[in-house]
Structure formats: C-alpha cells, structure tokens
Amino acid sequence: MLRLRYDLAMSYSQIRRSCGLSNGTLNGLLARAEKAGLTRWEQVRDLSEEALERRLFQRADDGQWLEERPLPDWAEVERDLRRHKHLTLKLVWGEYIEANPGGYGFSQFCDYFRRWRREQGRGVTLRQEHRPGEALQVDYAGDTVVVMDGGQAREAQIFVVCLPFSGLIYTEATWTQQLEDWLASHVRAFNFLGGVPGALVPDNLKSGVTKANFFDPVLNASYYELARHYGTAILPTRVRKPRDKPAAENAVLQVERWVLAPLRHQTFFSLGELNAAMMPLREALNNRPLSPPREGTRRSVFEAEERALLRPLPSDPYVVGQWDLGRTVGADYHVIADGHYYSVPCALARSRVDVFTTATLVTIFQRGERVASHPRSPIKGGHTTLPEHMPPGHRAVLERTPERMRAEAAGIGVATATYVDRLLASRRHVEQGVRAAYGVVRLAAKYGAMALEKACERALAAGVLSPRFVEGLLKAPTRPVLPEPIEGGPGEHGNVRGSGYYH
Questions:
Q1: Which listed site, 76, 102, 203, 438, has its alpha carbon 20 to 30 Å from 59?
Q2: What span, in angstroms and rounded, lies between the C-alpha atoms of 395 and 383?
Q3: Among residues 128, 252, 139, which one has the least CA distance to residue 201?
Q4: Dist CA 347 CA 331 (whole Å)
Q5: 369-387 burial by CB neighbour count: b if 16+ within 10 A, else e?
Q6: Residues 201, 138: contact at Cβ < 8 Å?
C-alpha cells in the first residue's frame, strides 16, 4: 500500500482496488504512516515487516509498543481449557481484561493465543504414512436412518470401515452398536474385502474396548477372540482423538454424503431393504475418481496394490458370540448366561468358568476346555439341566415320576402295583402321590419283594392307603399258629401247659 502510494503515486481508489482494502482501513493506515513520519518510499523500502509494524503501531500516549501490554501465561490458559470442559476462551479473556483493564481486546487476545499454539506445535497434525493392507480403521457414522420396523420407527446405526491406503470403504446398517452387531459387521467387512488386514483401529467403543488405555487397553473378550480367529491385532485410538483414525473419519463423511444423503426421501420397512439400497451407492462411491494427485478409484487401487497383501480368510467361519469370563458356578452346579441358568458337571460347583454365548448355543469352558454345551434358551430365570451333570442322588429324585413308580411296583407284584396305583390316585398333588408311592416301593430293598407283596395284600384288605401302615405290617413280629384244643384235655380250660405245671 505504501509503495503504491509513495512510489507509484496511485490514487486512493486505485490502491483500494489493487489491495482489496476498505476506505476506513486505507485512510487509517495512511494516517498512521504520516503520523510516524513515513511519507516517502525510501523511508519504508528497507524496513523489515516487524520494524515497519512497530513504527506504525506505536501508542500515542507513552510511545510503548503494543506487545508490551501484559499477556497471560498461555500454557496455563491451555491447561485450564483442557481441565474444565465448560470453560471458554471468552470467559478466560473476561477474567484477563478484568485484571488488566488496558489489555488486548478479545480478537487480539485470541490471535495471540493461536499464535502461541502454532509456535508450540499445537493444532498441527502428523502426516501418517499408510502401507497397503496394514490396517482397517473402524467407526460408526453420526447420522442414523429411520426404518419402519413392524410399524414402529427405529433408528438404524451405520457401520463404516476404511482401508487407509486405497481408501476402499465398506458400510452397512445394523440395529445397534452392541457387541453382537459389532462383531457381525466385522465378519461381513472381512468377507467384503476378501482378506484380513494386519490390524484393526477402532475408537474406544465399549463393544470393542472394556477399559481404555493407550498403552495397555483392556479389550472386550469377544472382540479379542474375533481378532485372534482372524489372525489380526487391535490398536484402539486415544480417547476422544478422532485424528488417530482420519481415514475412517473421512470415510464417514463420504458415506453420509454419497450413500445416506441420496436415500433421504426413501422410506424403508426393514433393515435388509435399507442395506440393499445402500449397496449400489457404496459401490458407486468406491468407483468415484480419487482427488488429484492420486489417480484411479478406491476400487482400482485396492485391486491393483492392496488385495494381494491382505491375509487370507480362515477356513472356518467365525461364529459371532459373546464371552463372559470368570463366571462363578452356583452350589446347584448351574451358571447364569443372559438371564437363564445352565448346568455344568456337579464336580464344578462353586468353581469359575468362561461362558461363550451365540444366537443359538451356550458353551461353557474351564481352562480352555469345553465342559458343557446347551441350546440357548429365551426363558429368563429358567433352568436347563442335563441329567448327566447331576449327582446320582439328584438324578434319582428327578427320575421319580408316577409312570416310573407304577413300573417299579408292577415288577414287585400285582398287589403292590394295585396298592401304588391307588396311592397315586388318592393324593391331591402329583408330588404327594409320588412320595407316597416311593415310600412303599423302597421297602422291597429292605424287606424283600415277597414280604412287601404280602403286606400290600393285607393293606388292601384293610382298606388303608398309607406307606407307614405297610411298613408297620412289615415290622410286626410273626405270631405262631395255635393248635386246636383237645376235648377233655388240659387245653379245654385254656391251660396249654397242663395242670401239673403249677404243682
């Protein structure tokens, strides 16, 4: 501006058009130059930018350079902003100006803060070098898609993964971001790629990372098993650091722009219908030309340079399930999984086991060995018990049924079978009848089948339906059979010993 004015003698309107300045700015700067005594180009030509700035922006009252106004400790300001999430730079400036009434205005305050951050290397990003097949970055889109599921509006979640080298994107819709959907989406993504990358780079979603720690994260057991099955590693990002996976962040933006936005006017009535509509748009996105200086498309770069460097898929497909480690088996030799109780061998009561739950199966392991397997039950609070897991005594109790009691009684004899059948019919509750019947049948082991059969005959004749009555008959001593009295003999008077017995 000064060169145009003093060296080339251009008019104010020409200078405004050439430099893109307003009237106020141009007049103000020229007035400052005149006040500083800079009215010839020779005075300005050899000055550095900093020296010229100091000459133009001296304070008129005391001649002090503006930068000598007090400034806060920018490092402390940055720490406060990080420590208190509701603290703003506007509030910090208000406290600063209250303590320093002659300090900088808000815009200059912010400018000095940004300048300090640049000098400290803050706000800059590290350019990442991506090698083909090295990693797969994983994320969910912030946008959701409404699906009318059975007449009820539900929001479908959008799963997005990206290979940073080629930029190839896979995306699909799931109902939730919960563990089973999270794992199943990974399996379908691997099948889409036709191979496995060297590492997975998710954020700290609970379905993937149980406890976030950049140096030693605690991974979800099921997610860890998936990675182990496919022979890959998991490298979670830092907490709230989206720049750690920039390819996934950009992929989310591209999916929201080129896949979800074109579907905004459509109504979907199932998750499958939504995924079917997304598929051609996803392929079109992968076949769009890359921005210069890169050539080709995401798909062409992937096929030419990256596909061959992916690890092969395992021969056995991964079964999506959820691990629950360190569950304690109850004293009833059952362990709970998804609200249902499943049995294990009784010798494992009160021990710790690992439970792997899939959509159809519950498998229980101890020290890496399978100890039990059950079909998954939807009944909350119910029990699934295998007879072979029970101790003999418990199994015997389980096997006491009316049919079993009738069969055992029939094996003893007709009278016993009849007596047991009447006992079962006489009780109001089935269990009462079973207990009474077992109370009779068990006596055969102690007194013998023949004795029990005779006792049941006598009980039937007496019309008494009671296991205690039958046992009483079996316990009673057998009375001797008395001889017939002889006419005229000593037995006539009931004295079986004879009259000489008393002399």
A1: 76
A2: 15
A3: 139
A4: 10
A5: eebbebebbeeeeeebbee
A6: yes
